[in-house]
Here is the input.
Amino acid sequence: MSRNSVKCPALRKALLVTVLLIVFLVVAIPFKVMSVIPGFTDIRPVALMQPVYGIFFGIPGCIAFAIGNLIGDIASDSLRWSSIAGFAANFLGPFAYYIFWTRISKTPFSLRSGKDLLKQTAVTVVSAVAQAALITPAVELIYPDVKSMVFASTVLLNDTIFPLLLGIPLMILMQEELTFTPLPNRKSSANK
Here is the structure.
């Protein structure tokens, strides 16, 4: 095996993370002005990209989403100690979709049937609850003056509403019209 063949996949993954990071920032930064709790949480339409990044791009998508959130915190002067939990939660969000559709689901990713939409909705709710459960205690512990119920509710709403109402149509468009192949489907077709 040549030395270049080892570097090439790593370079491709680094380029993918960079491109996904740029897309994240283009979607996220304009909405940072829509604060719910200034410096802590805002209205986040970029949350619609969580299932897209996890299902279509896997671990590089999860990394890009987490780094993108951290850069967004820095750019909007919202970097806090709780951003460490935010980094972990913003990796976990796309990762939940990735794990479900590549390891847990017995069927390939698709949003063509009601059953598939129900699965996607369940993963979205579980992911949102997990993210809120990860970030909220960190914010409450370090910044007790922040209203934790408002914070947790904002995280839950952002990470549920945007992936369901905007993320699902985007994924259907990507898969059906733009012919993007989700990771779970790539792996199942490679095993045949």
User: Anything to note?
Assistant: The domain at 3-190 is CATH 1.10.1760.20 (Arp2/3 complex 21 kDa subunit ARPC3). DSSP finds six helices and two strands in the chain. The chain has a mean pLDDT of 89.
